[in-house]
Specification:
heterodimer; A: alpha/beta; 4-stranded antiparallel β-sheet; 40% helix; 23% strand; B: ABC transporter involved in vitamin B12 uptake, BtuC; two-stranded antiparallel ribbon; 1% strand
Chain lengths: 252, 320
């Protein structure tokens, strides 16, 4: 069986900076893959390469066996790949429902407007925004906007969801709520790749972890194994707080 | 669509435009409403780009001018009937706009706005040197072209009704697009184009589609307008000040709304008529338009319709 997503020897540089270097990995259907690494390790760049915002200089990316390398983002979205943004990108003067309807209309199913509104409403319920459907996106709190990002991505009914730091900037209660939501989504069978700095969260959520450092894969494996990898600990030593958190979060 | 009240509001506006001058055979009112209908057509179609997709098209008048030339040329030199000439104008200009749009709409913001002025200037320069279209002296129509329409007197009425029809179609088009999936995609592009693309909106195609759609009816209106004048020359056909007026109207009425833009166009035409005929303000209308635009942008960024929506929230459910 072929993997859902295959990233094959992908490289991308900006000027003289090699953001991603000959990186390969695969995502299987239904799994949660955690992506960690110090700031500037190339995690968000990798998302931008996968969903077509950037084109890799070398290497191929296949989704469901189809080569999507260099295709524009709107084509890739149609194939069933959705994402959230680290810096939220709401369609500000449109309502929560309209934001989600855009996702549903132009997502994997390419739904007509009326049906899309139903799917959008269901997605809003999943993330807990059902009481704010008519609110303009600009009036949501930051936690609300993070949820909207997720609801909009879900509305597209994707097969693979890329989550870029959906927990950043949330308080502990909100984080707990978001983790419950992510678990619920996963139970529906959707595969998820998640970038996160909160070690506790990502270690418990992920089935597998990939550690990036300077655009290269440093380690890959079960959360418990990765957290004890000396190379990983060394990479994080530049950031003592994160290193401590990594140590703390590693399941005994 | 037939069950929506807004559909019937548009139908009512068309009926009033058609009947008001016809009942008393009021030629003066007809001429004033004809200009209002042209303004409504230009502004409503500009609104598809400016209000929906968020692209500032400064050179939208090129559709009107080019449509005028194509129609007048086929009617005069090829002896086509008016209906064929105006349809040819609409289809040709719309197709050209689609092709241009796929290229030019890669530009964003100020660069796109500048390129639209460039397109208008380039087309004007081309037409000024294009001998089959009379170069810089333009094309005159002989009075004979009005014969198939029953002579000049009757022809002016027929042209008026056709222009009112084009205005009505413009309003229906704005409304239909706004309440459709394409409209939702365009509004998303207007808010945040990158986010829209990531959500799956096929941005290049949708933008080119909106650009092309916004060219069709203005081109037909141009055909009718210059057929009525029986004369067309480059400086009239590609007059950037008319483009600017369409922008002022769209901002003034409330970009992105159908009602606001139509209302803005009507009010602007009335004001313009008053200023042109008043002794003190004659030839002052563009200055006033500029001041109006400034006031709107500074104090009422969502225009007349935005003010009405916030004052009477219920209107939001009926007036698009």
């Amino acid at each position: 069986m072929t993997a859902l997503l295959e990233v094959d020897e992908v490289s991308k540089s900006f000027g003289g900076v090699q953001a991603v270097r000959e990186l390969s990995f695969a995502v299987q259907g239904g799994e949660i893959l955690g992506l960690i690494g110090p700031n500037g390790a190339g995690k968000s760049t990798l998302f931008n390469l996968i969903n077509g915002v950037f084109t890799p200089e070398l290497g191929r990316i296949r989704f469901r066996g189809i080569d999507i390398t260099g295709k524009p983002p709107y084509r890739i979205a149609r194939h069933g790949l959705s994402r959230t943004h680290q810096i939220v990108q709401p369609l500000t003067s449109m309502t929560v429902l309209e934001n989600c309807t855009v996702g549903a209309c132009f997502g994997r199913e390419n739904l007509p407007l009326a049906r899309a509104r139903e799917v959008a409403r269901e997605a809003a319920v999943v993330v807990g925004l059902e009481d704010r459907l008519r609110m303009p996106a600009s009036q949501l709190t930051i936690a609300g906007k993070k949820r909207l990002e997720l609801a909009r991505a879900l509305s597209a009914q994707p097969l693979l969801l890329l989550l870029d730091e959906v927990l950043a900037g949330l308080n502990p209660t909100e984080i707990e709520h978001m983790i419950t939501v992510i678990r619920r989504i996963r139970e529906g069978g959707m595969a998820i790749v998640i970038i996160e700095h909160l070690m506790q969260a990502i270690m418990t959520l992920s089935d597998r972890i990939i550690v990036l450092n300077s655009g290269e894969k440093l380690a890959e494996g079960l959360p418990s194994v990765v957290a004890r990898d000396p190379r990983v600990i060394e990479a994080y030593l530049g950031d003592p707080a994160l290193a401590a958190e990594l140590h703390e979060a590693s399941p005994a | 669509m037939l069950r929506r009240p807004f559909f019937w509001i548009i139908a009512l506006v068309i009926a009033v435009f058609a009947l008001a001058p016809a009942i008393g055979n009021d030629v003066q009112m007809r001429e004033s409403l004809l200009l209002a209908a042209v303004y409504i057509t230009l502004a409503s179609n500009l609104n598809l780009m400016l209000g929906y997709a968020g692209y500032v098209n400064f050179g939208s008048i090129v559709f009107f001018g080019l449509g005028g030339y194509i129609c007048v040329y086929f009617v005069s030199a090829q002896n086509w009937p008016l209906a064929a000439g105006m349809l040819a104008a609409g289809i040709a200009v719309s197709a050209l706009a689609f092709l241009f749009g796929l290229g030019v709409l890669r530009l964003r913001g100020a660069f796109f706005a500048l390129s639209t002025i460039g397109i208008n200037e380039a087309v004007q320069a081309f037409v000024s040197n294009f001998e089959p279209w009379g170069g810089s002296s333009g094309i005159y129509l002989s009075a004979e072209v009005f014969q198939p329409l029953g002579g000049p007197g009757q022809a002016l009425w027929i042209i008026y009704f056709l222009i009112v029809g084009v205005m009505g179609l413009s309003l229906f088009l704005s409304y239909a697009i706004k309440t459709s999936k394409v409209g939702l995609g365009l509004l998303a592009i207007g808010q945040n184009e990158d986010a829209a693309a990531i959500l799956g909106v096929p941005t290049p195609f949708y933008k080119a589609l909106a650009y092309s759609a916004s060219a069709f009816l203005p081109a037909i209106a141009g055909g009718l307008y210059f057929f009525k004048s029986a004369f067309i020359q480059p400086s009239d056909a590609f007059d950037l000040s008319l483009s600017t007026e369409a922008m002022v109207i769209t901002m003034l009425g409330g970009q992105g709304t159908v009602t606001g833009v139509a209302l803005g166009a009507y009010l602007y035409e009335e004001l313009r008529g008053f200023l042109l005929t008043s002794e003190a303000f004659s030839h002052f209308q563009l200055v006033i338009a500029g001041v109006l635009l400034l006031i709107t942008v500074l104090f009422f960024p969502s225009g007349l319709m935005g003010w009405i929506y916030s004052r009477f929230p219920r209107t939001q459910r009926v007036l698009e």
